[in-house]
Amino acid sequence: MAQFLREEEVVSADIIAIQEPWENPFQDNTHHPLKQTHELLYPVAAEMGGRARVCMFISKKMGEHTHLAHSRDCQEIRIKTESSRELRIVNVYNDQQQGAALRLLQDKLLPTREQKGVSYLVLGDFNLHHPAWGGGDTPHDAGAEDLLDLMETAGLDNWLTPGTITRDQAGSQSTIDLVLASYALREQIVVCEVDHSVHADSDHLPILTLLEINVPEAADPVKRRNWKAMDVGKFLTFASANLSVMRLPEEPTPREIDYAVNHLLDIVQQAAQASTPWAKPSAWARQGWTPECTEAIEASRRHFRQYIRTHSEEDWKEFTSVRNAKGRVIKKALKQGFRQWVRDTVDKGPRGLWKVSKWARMRDQSTSSNIPTLHSQEGDTPAVTNAIKRAPPDKAPGEDGIPNRVWKLLADNDRFVAVLTAIFDACMRTGYNPRHFQASITVTLRKGGPRDFRQPKSYRPVALLNTLGKILESIIATRIAWAVEEYGLLPKTHLGGRKGISVDHAIQLILDRVHYAWGRGKKVSMLLLDVAGAYDNVSHERLLNNIKQLRLGQFAPWIASFLRNRSTRIKLPGYLSDSFPTPTGIPQGSPISPILFLLFNAPLITACGLRTGIAKSAGFGWVDDVAVLVESESYYNNTITLEKILGKANRWARRHAAGFAPDKFELIHFTNRNENETAQGLAANDTTHIGSDIFDYATQHPEGNDQMPVQYNELSIQPTQSAKYLGVWLDKHLDFDTHRRRLLDKANGSLEALRAMTGSVWGASLVAMRKVYQAVVVPQMLYGISAWYCPAARPMPAWEMKRTVNEFTKVQRRAAILISGAFKSTSAAALNVELFITPVHLLMDQIIQESAIRIQTGATWAQPECLRRQRSPGEIKKGGWSPLEALRWKKDGILDPKGNVCDSRKAFVLAPWEARIPCAIDKDAEAARASHDKIEMESLQQAALDRTPTVLFFTDGSGYEGQVGASAVAPREGVFQRRYLGTSEESTVYVAELNGIEMAVAKFANQYRNNTRLIIFSDCQAAIQAVQKPKRSSGQLGP
């Protein structure tokens, strides 16, 4: 089959029908080397009652078609022809003993009188002998008469000449492969014969059928250029020459903005046309194909033709020997080709390594306060440049086909940046988004995990937007995010998609609330909601209303323009639709969509927060996933409160034209193991009328129990033993046994997948595999560890702690053996030392401490209450320690060493439009001295001419005998400042270097006039880079 599907004549066919295809032993599919040209139609074994015995390949050039899998032995493709008729091609494998496929055909094929506008082409291996197709001396099989009756009923002709040999093995010849077609197709037949020029490497001979039928072809996919083959010099020369004459009016109209954008894109497209060739994907690329493969095929063909001429037993044996040798050659070549692909891809660096790793893991799968008025800021050149540099270079482009790497090349062109900044300024001032930015191409991506990929919900639509527009959207998204954080516009429990916030924050907030409620004797329940459709169902009107209510009205005109008049085209394999409007939703793939969705469903999170006389609740949002946590004196009160919250959520959905996915709702009643209540035992023994007559039960047992459901419309949401939120499985006792078990299963599965990347003598290198293990397997294996493994929070017996650690140590040991190729008996400790892998128990402690410090030094509004307030001993005894609480308040906790306070991190160090300080780092000491001498000479000349004065400061930080200090000196000005920062345990030399720069800036700001220039010299590159690109502070300990 491998050779057959690589034959040029086969690849050029529109339909390839195969019976008894090769079965992949590792996954439910077959060999598919034609991914560039054909789509494989292979039914799922679980639904067919076994592995498919027929499959079909259909060309991606074919237009609209429908695929039907009737059984594992029968498939059908329905194709609309240009004459408005329908051609139905049926591929059959008929088991001679059972005859199931033949009986199925009798039910599926329409009688002649009912075939209005329908024609059939039935082909396959029928395993039946009869003179009507085998010739005069052919024996009669019993089932052959049934086939003849079917041919008469359905009006089918046999197109092969009677007596045509279709199976030839060791001198045994027969006609059992047939091509049957409707009478209406007689005029369209061109040829139907055995094609001896194509060798199928099988005892069945390939049959060529050619019809003269006009079938609408699929729309040509968007052509793309081979940007990696660009002549950069030619591109920049052409672009620079044309950009120099481009001008934009001071107060442009929307029409003039559109003209400017189109003119800019025309320049870029013409520059690309002059410098960049079109990509030419080859349909004949053969990974690993060697001249030996070609020679082996030619030898096999020669011996086969010799056997066809003589049909002697000696020639047959010679042919089978050569054929088997050919199979071994091709198999070896393809294996070596795959291994070479792994080596070459890994050698390309981290992106290549990730590509191979992803392939290995995915091969089994065929985010009312008094607020002052906010003022918008015009675009500035650094913001535009930074946005371009942040954009990934090789992300899929939009309809214009221009990738980000083109804008990155032009980002160093001052004229281009000036023109683009002027256009973006005009867009923000006028509240207008250019029409070119409104068009997109929508592609579908498979969602993760095992799914039924015939269902539309198993795919995620992603909009491929024009990359220039995404740069503008990125700039505005950053400014909205800054305003949201600066003025606290979102609920504090709306966590997803916000800077500096991780899943650990959300899980720790939930755990903290549960343990806090347990400590006061409360019952806690959690309901998980899911907003259906999310981005696709966003109401533009309600989104704009929410934006105005949050005092973000200055962004509303541009956002309204961004949302209006959008259009897209659907792109599927071999198909590209016409453009059509998208009046609702926000494009999934736009940089601004995440923050817009947070603004859209912020009222939902607020609505989930409820405080009544009997209960209180809080809603935790992570994009479209919402967790509602309720605490009260009883589970009955919790369920009543949750039903009220569902009512409020429904009102939000109606107002916002949104909806929920009730099938994804999950309910869990958390149970405190430290309590011993009769109501807990009641649940196991008495569940009378809980689901059907909840009020009668409440009368008898007002406290309720942990088996009570929640009613949502006509749906009864039953409680579960464990629920998954943000990838973490929370069980009712918060033991996390389910979560640990699933982590181990996932890690072991990833290791098995990664075996495809390497072997003892081939594949990715040791260093590369170590990187994959640390970047892929370790995060999977220890996901959410700060919640489920914290010995400080839950006293664990030594044997239990050792067992937990040993389970994960075994996974790491397997990984180390796979990486190193060591013997299976090699000890884990020795492997860790040789591979420089951190032992699992130390790695666990490290990740827990890093997560805890990251939360403590992060945004204060996202910190659990336990970090600010200590509970009483009685509450702790009753409710147990939460993980962060134990690390904060226990004697050996890591979050409060020696009473020091950690620096707090802000989401944004500077506002997005604030200018950064220009910085320069010379390549070596010699160049630095030359730069200093030049600057000093220029400053002296400026002073002599009485022009803009320049002040030169020299800063330094140092550590000596355990003490750390900083200094700032301006010799010509007579300024000498020093600052003591404490011991080396309290500060670092790096902090001292930054303190020196800060001292120089403060002295300059207080003492010198506005028209004076300041230049600071520092010998610390890290400090200069921190000033040049200010980021969120490190969260270090401070005195």
UniProtKB/TrEMBL annotation:
Pfam families to which the protein is assigned, alphabetical: Exo_endo_phos_2, RVT_1
CDD domains the record matches: Rnase_HI_RT_non_LTR, RT_nLTR_like
GO molecular function annotations of the record: catalytic activity; nucleic acid binding
Listed InterPro entries: DNA/RNA_pol_sf, Endo/exonu/phosph_ase_sf, Endo/exonuclease/phosphatase, RNaseH-like_sf, RNaseH_sf, RT_dom
Annotated Reverse transcriptase domain residues: 426-684
Protein name (database record): Reverse transcriptase domain-containing protein
Native species: Penicillium subrubescens
